[in-house]
Amino acid sequence: xxxxxxxxxxxxxxxxxxxxxxxxxxxxxxxxxxxxxxxxxxxxxxxxxxxxxxxxxxxxxxxxxxxxxxxxxxxxxxxxxxxxxxxxxxxxxxxxxxxxxxxx
Length: 104
Hints:
Elements lengths: L6 H20 L4 H8 L3 H9 L6 H10 L4 H4 L8 H9 L13
Helix pairs in contact: 1-3, 2-3, 2-4
């Protein structure tokens, strides 16, 4: 069964693919050389540069590493940048804090 990919996901992957392609071209690296460095084949690299949602995140990570851009993938789901999660935790904080007394 094929899953429907949400439009913002497709847009984000297409932008990532375009950015990877631009980074490769700025470095004057051929697709064949980048694919070899990343340990993938040229067809997979082509899919990555097109933002194919069926390509594994490992492929994207290998390419980013080969371009010297792996730090960006480390921060994708960093808890310190999860504003929604932080707001949800803050909503659960107690309004008051009381000391429990012994014997009551």
